[in-house]
Each structure stands twice: as C-alpha cells, then as structure tokens.
C-alpha cells in the first residue's frame, strides 16, 4: 500500500490546513464587531493604537523567528521604501480606525457595505490608472 502525502498549499500547509486557517480568519473577522462593542468607554483611536502596537510586536517576533530581520533593516535604510511603508501604514490605520469607530457607533451595515465596495473600486482604479489587466479567473471574480 502506497502512502500519499496531502496536497500542499503555499507555506507547506496541507489544503485542509489552509482551508481551516482561512475559515478561522473569516470567522474572527466576522465576529470582531462583537468584541469591539464589548469595549465601551475605549476610543476607536486607542483600540487601533493597541492593535498596531501589539501587531507590530508579534510581527517582529515572527520576523526574528523566520530570520527575516535583515530584510527589515535593508528596507528602513531606503527613504523611498520607508515613505511607501509609512503611507501604506497610515492607510491601513485609517481603514481600521474608521472600521472600529463605525462598529462601536452602530454603523455595522454601512461599514460592511464599504468593505464590500472598496475592493471593486480598487480594481477599477487599478484598471484605469495602472493599466492592470485581469486574467480570465480574475474577471470571473470581478463579475461575481
């Protein structure tokens, strides 16, 4: 009898493990409004600040663990790279700040619609301004 190894996805995970992680991410993101609402009296900015700080520390630990810290030091020596990372970080911070503020102020439906529409707008902007041309499978995703 021959032993077959399970199909592996990116990162060496089996397809089943990858689907489990994906399900966990979607479940935690879907349930996060319940968590944010439990934090009455804490401002959205404070919540985002904690999320950013602790997330940065966790990422730093993983970078050390995976031996990726030299890449970080190379990136922070380049002014253009720092400017790009800073701009992306501010956009990400702004997005999460609005999201947490909306959830804690009873605007979950509006926030959900925004998270649904923004990828479509980003796709259109990429098509118009950056001349990105989606492939056949990507067109199917856009249509759906």
Can you describe this structure in just a few lines?
By secondary structure, the chain is mostly helical. 78% of the residues lie in helices and 0% in strands. It starts with 14 loop residues before the first helix and ends with a helix.
Question: What does it look like?
Answer:
- With 144 residues, this protein is an all-alpha fold.
- 78% of the residues lie in helices and 0% in strands.
- It has helices at residues 15-38, 44-66, 69-77, 79-104, 108-129, 136-143.
- The longest helix has 26 residues, at 79-104.
- The model has no long low-confidence stretch (mean pLDDT 83).
Write the layout of secondary structure elements.
Blueprint: H1 15-38, H2 44-66, H3 69-77, H4 79-104, H5 108-129, H6 136-143
